[in-house]
Each structure stands twice: as C-alpha cells, then as structure tokens.
C-alpha cells in the first residue's frame, strides 16, 4: 500500500514548499544520537510529549544580560512566565539573576515558591485580582498599574496594610502607558489618565513608591519600541521634576522576535504557498514572522542603539540613570524545547489536481490534538516542518501529508499544510515539531475527550549523556 501511495503522489511532494526548522545543537544531538530515548519516553509517558531544555533557556538569558552589559545599561530581565507553564524554567531564574513577569496570582506564587525574590517579580495584566495586589504588597513586587481605578484600589490596600502592620508595606508601582502607535489598545493609560495617576501618586507618597513607566507593544518593530522608550524617559524626567524622585525605571515589555527558519526558506514559502498546499484548501490571512534578521538579544541591542534626535537610547538611559526592564518570553525560550507526537494512523486522500484540494495526499493522525500546538490560538498555522523519526530504518520515496489530531473535531489539524516527508509515515513513528517551548506547547492545551494533559520532560546533559526528569519534580543538581 505504501508503494501505491508513493506512486499515486508521483512528483507532487517535490512541488511543495519546504520550511526546515533551525535546530539547536543540543536538539540535533538528542534527535540524532538519542532518538531511542525519545521513543521510550513517548511510549512510557504517552503522546503528546513536551521536552524542555533548560540549558538552552539559561544560554538565552545570558545573551540578554550580555546585550545590556555591552551597551553599558543598568537593566533587569523578567521572564514572561505566560509563554510556558514549565516549572523548570522558573526554577532557574534565581541562579541566572533574572526575575519573573507574572500576570496571575498562581504565576506569582509559583515564582516565590521557586525562590524568586518578590523584588524580582513584576506584576502585569489588566484588572488585577485583589489577592494578587495584596501578595504584591507583602512581597514588594513591582506592579504595572493599568488604570486610574486600579491605582486607587492599590493605594487603599497599601494604606490598610500600613495601618494594620508596624512599619507597613509600601506599594511599588509603574504606570502602564498606552503606546502612541496603538491608541486603540485596551491596555494602559491615555496621557490624560496618566496625568490623573501621577497626581494620585504625588498625593499618596506616604504609601506608594512610583518607580517609573511601562508599555507593551504588539508586533516586532525595533523603531517603535525605541521611540516609545525615549518618550518614557521624558516622562520619568517630568515626574522627577514634580517630586517623584524614585521614578528611575522604564519597562519596555516583551515582543522580542525569534528566528525559527532561515531567510531563504521563509521567503520562498511566502512566495509559493497557495490554498492547494493545505488540506481542504485552507487559507490563512497571516503568519508569525518565522524569520527575523535581528532576533532575541540582537533585537535588544538594536533597540538600545536606536537614536532619537541623534542620541541612542542606551546613551540617554545612562545619562539620566534610568534602569531598563524587559519581559522576553518567547525569546528566552527560543530552542528551549520541542514536541513529539506519535503517529497512530495514516490514510490516503484522493484529491483533484484541478481543484483547491490539489492532487492526492495523506492524512496523518497523531496521538494528541492541535491544542498542543497553539498557533491555532491566533487562527494561524505553525509553519516550520516537523521531523519524521521512523520507528525503524526503512527506505521510501517522498510523501505529502497533512497532520490531524485525534479528536472528533474536523478543525483539529496540527498541520493543515501538506508536509513533504522523506518517506511514507507509519503507525508508531514520531513526528517532532521543533522550537515549541515559546507559547506553542501549552497555551491552549485541554483535557478534551478526557485525554490527559501532555507530560513535560526536562532533559539535561551530564558527562555527554542525557538525563531526564518530569518537570513537576523538584530540581536537584547532580553531584
């Protein structure tokens, strides 16, 4: 049957755009030299399987800190916890000298439980729960205030705490500003609201320390982030002149791009892709920019070098003694994990070469669902090609197939796009999607059909050999 499938497809797979994913050397080593371990873990823990690589996370954090140091800027990195639920990444933060950006009570509690000091936790998100604000007060977390109403509530909590406790607990706040380039965002304060918030901070200096301003931008524009940061510096200087002497911090948020594929493959894909390359002639309006010329810490360096009136952002930060906070999530997780699905069925679909469905192709069904590859969250597609790890070595011809999940939903497609596999996938083979730690692997996961949530396995290298543990287990260093 496999031979018949290959003959039926003929040269069709060769015409499909290929978008091979970039591989970190550690990932390449695990897949190339220790694929048996991956198969055993998938067999024992089930499909879907998420693999976390904290050593890569640590290297990414050091690159961000190095970029700050090379620019001579006083700065601090907060890992945006929402990008991955894995505990092992949070456990590393204290030792790496970075903090946590938490947007819920549970994220803040996990950070504290993993040894992150309260002073190194930033509290973000709109309309924060009173319990989260109370915890932030007790632990001296830095709260990004999203509205005048929220600031009033926080001031009231701080005043009650001061009256109830000897010495009290002073609230630490940043005022979150609505970016000038995104005036319709539901987050942050307008200039008029910011002025009202400043007046409140001045009136309640006995219980509130106003330490600066924050913003968060959608998209990946270097110039837009730098321009907004220059405006926040001006806002800090104005606040100081008005008596808020502690206003020495700006937080530029996250949105640091990640490079998943090389420039040529990405450009070719965008030019060549068409509805017939997707199951059911599916169309997408937009994709994540899977190639970036300046990803991660390189993007931070470019932001710091961006000039306003001939003066680089880094220079102005140094001149005015302003600390820079940043909240990378996806960029800290770049190459820090991948996801393996076990194939549980393959069927052949007869297409129509003259219709949007295109010629014949296969439909691979995996153990797991598209909820574990969360680009569907944005009504889009995760484009980098998955790797096929055959259960055993075999010869074969190229084979085109899309990838569906195991649920009863017709829309449950892990990859709508028809992938050009080197050979026909078979039951028991693994499909590995690379670089999924940042937002992909758990943002949308659900126990639909009573399926268990996928296991997360942490793999580290010790004396050249991989050692694994469940992410839920406390971290323990090897002697």
Would you kindly provide a written description of the structure presented here, covering whatever features stand out?
- The protein is an alpha/beta fold and 479 residues long.
- The chain folds into 2 domains: 2-53 and 335-470, Lyase, Ornithine Decarboxylase, Chain A, domain 1; 54-257 and 292-326, Alanine racemase (TIM Barrel), CATH 3.20.20.
- The protein has 14 helices and 19 strands.
- It has helices at residues 2-9, 12-15, 25-33, 35-45, 54-70, 87-96, 105-113, 130-139, 148-164, 191-203, 222-241, 263-272, 296-305, 313-319, and strands at residues 49-52, 75-80, 99-102, 121-123, 142-145, 171-176, 208-214, 249-251, 307-308, 311-312, 323-326, 337-349, 361-366, 387-389, 399-404, 413-421, 430-434, 455-462, 465-470.
- Strands 1, 12, 13, 14, 15, 16, 17, 18 and 19 form a 9-stranded mixed β-sheet that branches. It has an 8-stranded parallel beta barrel with strand order 2-3-4-5-6-7-8-11, surrounded by 7 helices. Strands 9-10 form a two-stranded antiparallel ribbon.
- Helix 5 (54-70) packs parallel to helix 6, helix 8 packs across helix 9 (148-164) and helix 11 packs across helix 13.
- The radius of gyration is 25 Å and the shape is elongated.
